[in-house]
């Protein structure tokens, strides 16, 4: 079969290891000849930030970041970077911290180095997001792509199993969306399939054998990186559009929302995208993509319902209306208001996602 597509590969240096945070970040800072670093860290990564502060020329340390990057936080951090005359941003933390760093880089064009402590994948994309007045706006700009990413398995060693599961499923959602997003292509599909295989393996290992070594967490880091590179090229599909609405407008927690919504979007699109379904099933080791995903979710005790995350039933109609405004034209199945409400209600209640299948 002939192929015709264009693919943009993002340029960044990636380091994997154990105990490599200080040495690899220091080397990355030296390569960029930075002299005034603004260090942005999550509270959970305070000890890692302390370690970096000892070896980097830190001009200012910005501790803490809120989910979905509120505009006022981005503005405050941007002002501080300007005040201290920072020439480099170094972020250590999860997706919220890296997202805040990206927001600063978007306005300042300062280079960015990321050391992720979850499996969010933001570190490997040129996608930014900022929430203002209850609406999350996202965009693409190469200025926000971290120049270097440092994956130190020690940074995820203390991540709770529940957060690891949600974060890993968020990465799995990057893979699934990459198969039908606007820029989907054969390279994205290949990376997404390998990423799903690694993520499923890692999720089972950290759930069934917690605290027994680095194999599971490193599989998750590896899978999260591949998933994010596929997603960065393919763009945002229906799943992420829905989750941006739920997070930006209704304040739902990022990773857990992705973990809940994923099977419902898969069920909705699956019968209209058989090739994507075949890849997902193969990667997850099953005959049917949705069945394989549900078996994995049951095995790792994934979160099940949006109502458990704080979404109110009376918000479903409004959320559905917002979703309809952002459904990608590339989505393999059309969606109307009834479809959107039905999908969100099923995810809100934790119903069997197979009821959303079209079965043409």
Structure description:
The chain has 360 residues and is an alpha/beta fold. The protein has helices at residues 21-31, 46-55, 71-83, 95-108, 161-178, 186-208, 215-234, 238-250, 254-270, 274-284, 289-300, 316-324, 337-349, and strands at residues 13-17, 37-41, 58-63, 88-93, 112-116, 127-132, 135-140, 148-152. The strands form two sheets. A six-stranded parallel sheet has the order 1-8-5-4-2-3, sandwiched between helices. Strand 2 (37-41), helix 2 and strand 3 form a beta-alpha-beta unit. The model has no long low-confidence stretch (mean pLDDT 94).
Strand content: 5-15%
| CATH structural class of the largest domain | Mainly Alpha
String of helices and strands? EHEHEHEHEEEEHHHHHHHHH
What is the β-strand count? 8
Low-confidence stretches: none
Basic shape: globular
Characterize the biggest β-sheet.
6 strands, parallel
Radius of gyration: 20 Å
Residue-averaged pLDDT? 94
Q: Tell me the helix content.
A: 40-55%
Which structural class do you get from the secondary structure elements?
alpha/beta
Features:
alpha/beta; Dehydroquinate synthase-like, alpha domain; six-stranded parallel beta sheet; 8 strands; 360 residues; 13 helices; 51% helix
Short description:
With 360 residues, the protein is of the alpha/beta class. It has helices spanning 21-31, 46-55, 71-83, 95-108, 161-178, 186-208, 215-234, 238-250, 254-270, 274-284, 289-300, 316-324, 337-349; strands at 13-17, 37-41, 58-63, 88-93, 112-116, 127-132, 135-140, 148-152.
């Amino acid at each position: 079969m002939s192929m015709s597509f264009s693919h943009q590969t993002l340029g960044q240096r990636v380091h994997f290891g154990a105990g490599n945070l200080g040495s690899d970040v220091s080397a990355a800072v030296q390569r960029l000849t930075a002299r005034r670093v603004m260090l942005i860290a999550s509270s959970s990564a305070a000890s890692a930030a302390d370690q970096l502060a000892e070896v980097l020329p830190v001009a200012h340390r910005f501790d803490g970041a809120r989910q979905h990057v509120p505009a006022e936080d981005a503005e405050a951090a941007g002002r501080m970077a300007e005040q201290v005359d920072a020439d480099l941003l170094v972020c250590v933390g999860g997706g919220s911290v890296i997202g805040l760093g990206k927001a600063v880089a978007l306005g300042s064009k300062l280079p960015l180095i990321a050391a992720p402590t979850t499996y969010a994948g933001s570190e490997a994309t040129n996608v930014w997001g900022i929430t203002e007045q209850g609406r999350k706006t996202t965009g693409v700009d190469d200025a926000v792509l971290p120049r270097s990413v440092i994956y130190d398995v020690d940074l995820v060693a203390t991540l709770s199993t529940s957060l690891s599961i949600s974060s890993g499923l968020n990465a799995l959602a990057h893979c699934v969306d990459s198969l039908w997003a606007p820029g989907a292509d054969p390279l994205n599909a290949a990376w997404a399939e390998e990423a799903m295989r690694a993520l499923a393996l890692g999720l089972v290992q950290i759930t069934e054998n917690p605290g027994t070594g680095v194999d599971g967490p490193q599989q998750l880091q590896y899978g999260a990186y591949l998933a994010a590179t596929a997603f960065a090229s393919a763009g945002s599909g229906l799943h992420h559009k829905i989750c941006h609405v739920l997070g930006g407008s209704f304040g739902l927690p990022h990773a857990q929302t992705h973990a809940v919504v994923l099977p419902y979007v898969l069920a909705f699109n699956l019968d209209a995208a058989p090739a994507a379904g075949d890849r997902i099933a193969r990667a997850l080791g099953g005959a049917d993509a949705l069945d394989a995903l549900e078996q994995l979710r049951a095995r790792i005790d994934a979160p099940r319902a949006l109502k458990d995350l704080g979404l109110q039933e009376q918000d479903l109609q409004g959320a559905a209306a917002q979703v309809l405004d952002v459904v990608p034209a590339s989505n393999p199945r059309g969606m109307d208001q009834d479809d959107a409400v039905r999908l969100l209600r099923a995810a809100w209640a934790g119903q069997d996602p197979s009821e959303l299948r079209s079965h043409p």
